[in-house]
Amino acid sequence: SPAATKQQQSKEFEAATALLEKSARDYDNNDALLLLAELNFFSKYAYPRNYRNAFTYYNELANKGNATAQQMIGFIYATGIGNIVERDQAKALLYHTFAAHGGDTTAEMTMGYRYLLGIGTDESCDDALYHYKNVASKVIDYYLSGPPGGHTPPLSKVRLSEEHGGVYGYGASVTTEKRSRHPGGSEKSVSIAEILQYWRYLAAKQDMDAQLMLGQVYYLGTRSIPRNFNEAYMFFHQIVDKVSPGGKIPVKHSKVIGQAAGYLGLMYWRGEGVKADENTAHKWFQLGVELGDSTSQNNLGMMYLDGIVVARNRDKAIEYFKKAADQENPNAQVNLAMEYAQSEASMPLAIRLFTKAADAKHLLAYWYLAHMNEQGMTPRPSCRVAVSYYKAIAERGDWLNPTVEDAYAAYLKNDKESALLNYMLAAERGYEVAQSNVAYVLDNDKKMLDHLPFIETSKEIIQGLDEKESAFIYWTRSANQNNVDSRVKMGDYYFKGIGTPIDFEKAVSCYRLAAETQGSPLAFWNLGWMYESGIGVAKDFHLAKRAYDQALNIDQDAYLPVKLSLIKMYAKYYWEWIT
């Protein structure tokens, strides 16, 4: 029975805890102490969560100089989670400082973020740069330790609000993509399954575009479709197998065949799904180059640059990098920029190429642009720009600390407390997406969202956490990292007094900032209403009309609410005029 199973599990937990306690006390085993802390804090192996016990174990370890434990004590002081200690940013900073000096990567990120925004300390771009550069350096080392071309970066982080149409729903939110309303449910799964089935149907009929699409999907992977090198290899080969030795390739198929050859070359060079073989990789790259494929051009350039299979030839390498870069290949843009950066005369061109690659979120482009800004090598060097690139590397390349991914995995399993806990950990490290996710989950100001399975506003998710105040804090931090919807939410919280005292003037400031500098139609509408009503600002119907008009100019879908607001405002204006 479930009761008997639970009782048996409880006995096993007690026995395991006793053994770990004995190991920690009798043999001074710090690993046992850390495991006890993590069992209680993260509920590992379904161990009953107990923040107070976790704090006791972490505190004991922190006093011994353990950087991981110091970082966790810092987090507990920063958030007041578990109602164990009062929130204390000064103590949080102290523990994170010790942890960062002890080499804890997550603490270094936290310190970088705190110095960047001045949380618990004075703002210091130099100190932020120091910490973020340390983390970025570790990330780049790991990235380059992978196969040729580096480790594949983690998938982009998921913004929970986008799964439900944005913070304010479809049409009213700015930072949202039009995603399915059911991220982990049947609608999305069925639709993807149907699309794959249709592509497979076309691929079976020898449709080369469908074969390439399937090969790319399985090679790169998505959130719904894991990487599958065997499937990718099969589909790429189905395309190139249509080319007979010495046969003429039809022009209409040359691009698709070239791309397939480029992917096969990559797989052989990197040893993905096949045994690594530089000679076979070179053969496929050569075919791809003949057909104008940018991946093949870039990788053949790398072979010439490093003397792999072919004789070293820098001029030929640059020639291939140029061809690929002209096709907007980010890897080639970085490789070509690195060659140009060796000469002061061609440095401006190198910076331009790095910037293009950075727009495609290339880690090495981020790294070199950060370094160039730090060293004053750009036309307008900036410490904050350098920090922004180092920060982007730290957050994009978090292979070894995938806390945001852990949070999303818990979210999909409907494990609300673990999801929120991990998002809060990442939020304290400066991840804007985690900050907005924490605020979104804790937001009690949702209207039509209350029916969603994860978004329950009536229950306390983490015991002892002041959810309204925490939501306000994380909306604010997200807004301060340029999330426009979070800025509008800040205004809402000031207007309604959620997690902070009512302050109409601050609400107006938030709406004005989101409207005038970030172009939020909802912020313009709110600003119009504030001017119309004379709340937080002097009543001014002319400025109200201007704000309403701006909302409509930005978003034509706002036609009906704006027109209704204008009619109401004109009626109010007329009434005040005649009375």
From TrEMBL:
GO cellular component terms, alphabetically, are:
endoplasmic reticulum membrane
The record's section on Pfam families has: Sel1
Matching InterPro entries: Sel1-like, Sel1_AlgK, TPR-like_helical_dom_sf
Q: Which GO terms describe its biological process?
A: ERAD pathway
Origin superkingdom: Eukaryota
- Give the family, as the similarity comment puts it: Belongs to the sel-1 family.
Put simply, this protein is called Uncharacterized protein
Q: Which organism is it from?
A: Mucor lusitanicus CBS 277.49
